[in-house]
Write a structure and sequence with these properties.
The chain has about 425 residues and is an all-beta fold. It contains no helices and 29 strands. Among the domains are: about 80 residues, no CATH class; about 120 residues, Immunoglobulin-like (Sandwich), CATH 2.60.40. The strands form nine sheets. Strands 16, 19, 22, 25, 26 and 27 form a six-stranded mixed beta sheet that branches. Strands 1-2-3-4 form a four-stranded antiparallel beta sheet, with no helix packed on it. The protein has a four-stranded antiparallel beta sheet with strand order 10-11-12-13, with no helix packed on it. It comes from Athelia psychrophila.
């Protein structure tokens, strides 16, 4: 197999930016750094030895193509130079940057402060200050929005682990010695739709900063803990790595917000030769987002509702609802769809969520799923599936209007709330159920 690579012109220095994929497919890259010389010495825009233009205010768009005619284009500039600006895809498929305007209702955590920002009313609601440690960059604790599932009515919980307690002005002190300050092992979580207060979770085995979070299709959160100064290239093998993967056929290429459910046929082989596994099968949709310097942006893991029918021949059918009729839970645009059987995911199917157009997404009433059933002679298991079995997704929370962003080093003061969150510390796996 041959792979052809074509260099794209960045137009300006896109070191330390954020990026996202818009509803209709273009890749957007925002912010960056000014020109530099040897050793990172800053230069005026466009000067040598690298001739980089200042990218701090740049907004770049790449429209993918099947030929050699597409390249980065520059749009209007930001009003402020930014590293790591928040870039979050909203429910209408557009993107919000903290350097330009308010967003949908955002959960914002910067330094010690936590607020909800309502973009429609342009109001902030103060929540409890985060306990124990600063988590945002450059203190660099870790943050993850846990999987959104029918069991919790797609109510989001955000987990924070690690970080440090360096004072804001410490980062600007000459001769500042970061290793003098111990990393925190604290983990806390918050569920803003339920309470504005944090919950103390089990701590990490050791204090950690500067890790990176991965949401696995089986619903676990995993992060490596190698010593960063050695810059190793490691391979992670999941618990299901050597298990046969399900390979269902005729997966959908689009999902809507509400509407008729769809049926997924699973063979006995897909169910790993265990017919009762139909009760332990789910579909998940993951928006992978963008990651840089331990800042993970715009990531979502959403499990649609489902029910099942088990057949006497060992096969089964999963009845899968469309996405909840609320685009704020999962923004429209490209995403990955997995079928997970007893914790083992299929190879992903690339899908389009919504109508592929920027703007208010059409929603339909959620369909009522068939009840869970097995035909005569089909084995059963004591555990039930994650699906509701004859349930309806119609009771989706309509106040789920918040998202997650990232924070720049220049936004570390309480009176200048930076927008968002970054990544994850220490090796940690969090079980979120089957």
């Amino acid at each position: 197999m041959s792979i052809n690579v074509r260099k794209l012109e960045g137009l300006s220095l896109c070191l330390l930016p954020l990026a996202t994929i818009l509803d209709n497919g273009p890749w957007m890259n925002v912010g960056g750094s000014q020109g530099v010389s040897y050793g990172g010495v800053t230069l005026a825009s466009g000067n040598g030895p690298y001739d980089y233009a200042d990218g701090g205010k740049s907004v770049r768009i790449l429209n993918p193509c099947d030929n050699d005619n597409c390249d980065w284009e520059t749009l209007e500039q930001l009003t402020t130079r930014r590293w790591y600006p928040t870039l979050e895809t909203l429910e209408d498929g557009s993107a919000i940057s903290s350097a330009t305007s308010s967003a949908a209702t955002l959960l914002i955590q910067s330094n010690w402060a936590t607020v909800l920002l309502d973009y429609t009313a342009q109001e902030e609601q103060a929540l409890q200050d985060i306990p124990d440690a600063v988590r945002c960059y450059p203190a660099s604790g870790g943050t993850a929005m846990l999987p959104l599932t029918p069991a919790s009515n797609w109510t989001a919980t955000v987990l924070f682990c690690g970080g440090s307690n360096i004072k804001s002005n410490g980062w600007e002190t000459p001769g500042f010695n970061i290793p003098q300050f111990a990393a925190s092992a604290s983990c806390v979580s918050i569920t803003p739709d339920v309470s504005g207060n944090y919950t103390e979770e089990d701590p990490l085995p050791e204090g950690r900063t500067m890790g990176n979070l991965i949401l696995l299709p089986d619903g676990t959160v995993v992060n490596g803990r190698a010593q960063r100064e050695h810059h190793p290239a490691d391979t992670f093998y999941s618990a299901y790595y050597n298990k046969p993967r399900p390979a269902p056929q005729n997966l959908p290429t689009t999902l809507t917000y509400g509407g008729a459910y769809w049926n997924l046929s699973l063979t006995s082989t897909d169910l790993a030769g265990t017919p009762a596994n139909i009760q332990n099968t789910k579909v998940v949709v993951i928006r992978t987002g963008f990651s840089t310097h331990t800042i993970n942006m715009d990531v979502r893991y959403v499990e649609p509702d489902s029910s099942y029918t088990g057949n006497a021949d060992g096969s089964g059918t999963l009845h899968v609802a469309q996405l909840p009729p609320d685009a704020a839970i999962l923004a429209s645009g490209p995403a990955l769809l997995f079928v997970v059987v007893d914790g083992v995911p299929s190879v992903a199917q690339m899908i389009m969520v919504g109508n592929g157009k920027i703007g208010k997404q059409p929603t339909l009433s959620a369909a009522t799923l068939p009840s869970n059933a097995t035909t005569a002679g089909a084995p059963t298991a004591s555990s039930s599936s994650s699906g509701g079995g004859g349930s309806s997704s119609a009771a989706v929370k309509t106040d789920m209007r918040w998202a997650i962003g990232a924070v720049a080093a220049t936004d570390m003061t309480p009176d200048h709330i930076g927008y968002g969150l970054d990544s994850f510390p220490s090796f940690l796996t969090i079980s979120t159920g089957p």
